[in-house]
TrEMBL record:
<keyword id="KW-0676">Redox-active center</keyword>
<dbReference type="InterPro" id="IPR036249">
    <property type="entry name" value="Thioredoxin-like_sf"/>
</dbReference>
<comment type="similarity">
    <text>Belongs to the glutaredoxin family. CC-type subfamily.</text>
</comment>
<keyword id="KW-0963">Cytoplasm</keyword>
<dbReference type="InterPro" id="IPR002109">
    <property type="entry name" value="Glutaredoxin"/>
</dbReference>
<dbReference type="InterPro" id="IPR014025">
    <property type="entry name" value="Glutaredoxin_subgr"/>
</dbReference>
<protein>
    <submittedName>
        <fullName>Monothiol glutaredoxin-S6</fullName>
    </submittedName>
</protein>
<dbReference type="GO" id="GO:0005737">
    <property type="term" value="C:cytoplasm"/>
</dbReference>
<dbReference type="Pfam" id="PF00462">
    <property type="entry name" value="Glutaredoxin"/>
</dbReference>
<dbReference type="InterPro" id="IPR011905">
    <property type="entry name" value="GlrX-like_pln_2"/>
</dbReference>
Amino acid sequence: MESIRDLVADKPVVVFSKSSCCMSHSIQTLISGFGAKMTVYELDQLSNGKEIEKALIQMGCKPSVPAVFIGEQLIGGANQVMTLQVKNQLAALLRRAGAIWV
């Protein structure tokens, strides 16, 4: 199985999600609103999704989705991403990761 590290390597933004999770959808909408290109892995649609979900939980993601990586670093879930947005820090983080240019 590909490790989480392999899945996020060389990608500015990665979101691990489930297609039925409204918080995952909200976080994806927020990040794409900046014009950021992101890679989304829908765990409920991947054959190894359960293994990836277990690995995310072992990394401290509770709940397991959404799990957001920016610049190959685990940011966390919806609460952490929304906190960055409220503190006006999300855009700068996306810029540093090369996800947005403005």
